[in-house]
Amino acid sequence: MSTVQQTLRRGTKLFGKSSRPALEAKLLLLRATGLSEEDFLKAPGRSLSRAEERCFNRLAAVRLIGCPLAYLTGFKEFWSRDFRVTPGVLIPRPETELIVEKVCALSSRAKVTIVDVGTGCGNIALSLAKELPRAQIVATDISRRSLKIARLNAGNHHLRRLTFLNGDLLLPLRKLRLQGRCDFIVSNPPYVSQRDWMKLPLEIREHEPKRALLAGPTGLEAVSRLVQQAPHYLKRGGWLLIEIGKGQLQRVIGLFGSVWEGVAWAADLRGIPRVVMARKA
């Protein structure tokens, strides 16, 4: 039988082409053994059972053929919290934290109404619920699978005061009669164009949900619809915040007409314009 330390070393060699081979090996080892981080550090000489070793070997083999690490561990960190993800649900990215940061900066932290469009695993909505506990938050998604995971994450984070609605973009809000009542509408919508889709890594194209990434021929199909729909639901002075892709800034800004004011943008840590913000005039 191999020990924890021996398996970690073997896994690190297996993932040698990864940017973080030791971390990937450790996360899969934790998943296979069920050890906590604390127990893992205390037990380098602990022997793996046959079942644990088989589980690690299976996870490593699937990872080596390109399955995203988050789908194998079952979790992805976002805003310093773990969110459950499963195949068919978009994996949160660090750059999306910029939306949470900007809403917190713009909010009065009073009782505001926030709508998260295309919530996925709920990472944006639940992070905002933690930071703004007085907020009324509604999360929508066209995928019932994603909403199931988002509700599960809400329970895991002990957040009960969110409303989850199934449907396309803002159309589900009609049920709640939220026309003209929202302070913030936020979204990480599909924004990959057909041309750029073929440039994405195979790991993304073959495993993550295409519908959550590919917008259409131009990449702006979903963004354009959000810009058109949002004024019907925002209060005067309410904000729309949308994540966008590399090279899309000027085209996205061009979508905002006279009903909007204060159009601005924020860059991610790589300096790429990532979030466009606009206020209803």
Characterization of the model:
The protein has 281 residues and is of the alpha/beta class. The chain has two domains: 4-65; 75-280, Rossmann fold, CATH 3.40.50.150. It contains twelve helices and eleven strands. The protein has helices spanning 4-14, 21-33, 37-42, 50-64, 69-73, 97-106, 123-131, 144-156, 194-197, 202-207, 221-229, 249-253, and strands at 75-78, 81-84, 113-117, 136-141, 162-166, 182-187, 192-193, 214-216, 234-243, 260-267, 273-280. The strands form three sheets. The protein has a seven-stranded mixed sheet with strand order 5-4-3-6-9-11-10. A two-stranded antiparallel sheet has the order 1-2. Helix 1 packs across helix 2, helix 2 packs across helix 4 (50-64) and helix 6 (97-106) runs parallel beside helix 7 (123-131). The longest helix is centred in the N-terminal third of the chain and has 15 residues, at 50-64. The mean pLDDT is 96.
Layout of strands and helices, then pairs:
Blueprint: H1 4-14, H2 21-33, H3 37-42, H4 50-64, H5 69-73, E1 75-78, E2 81-84, H6 97-106, E3 113-117, H7 123-131, E4 136-141, H8 144-156, E5 162-166, E6 182-187, E7 192-193, H9 194-197, H10 202-207, E8 214-216, H11 221-229, E9 234-243, H12 249-253, E10 260-267, E11 273-280
Parallel strand pairs: 3-4, 3-6, 4-5, 6-9, 7-8
Antiparallel strand pairs: 1-2, 9-11, 10-11
Helix pairs in contact: 1-2, 2-4, 6-7
Low-confidence stretches: none
Total number of domains: 2
**Any idea of the CATH topology of the largest domain?**
Rossmann fold
- Named at the architecture level, the CATH assignment of the largest domain is 3-Layer(aba) Sandwich
Q: For the record, give the distance between the C-alpha atoms at the N and C termini, rounded to a whole number.
A: 67 Å
List SSEs in N-to-C order: HHHHHEEHEHEHEEEHHEHEHEE
